[in-house]
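Please describe the entry underneath.
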Amino acid sequence: MIVEDFTSLERGLVVPLEGRVDVCPRCGRNGIEEHPQCGDPYFLHVQSSALLSDGMRTEPIDRCELPAN
């Protein structure tokens, strides 16, 4: 299992396959804005990733919910 902490990355940095690091409008910590197709938008601060036999599973550990537009 791998834990990725986006709060420690510099604002403006582009993380491959994730997005651009920016400041969360709710808590002021760094993270990546996510807009999933089947859910409400959120600002991702920390996520875990695990390689399973049938693919990769990523799960948010720390995030702030954003208001849906």
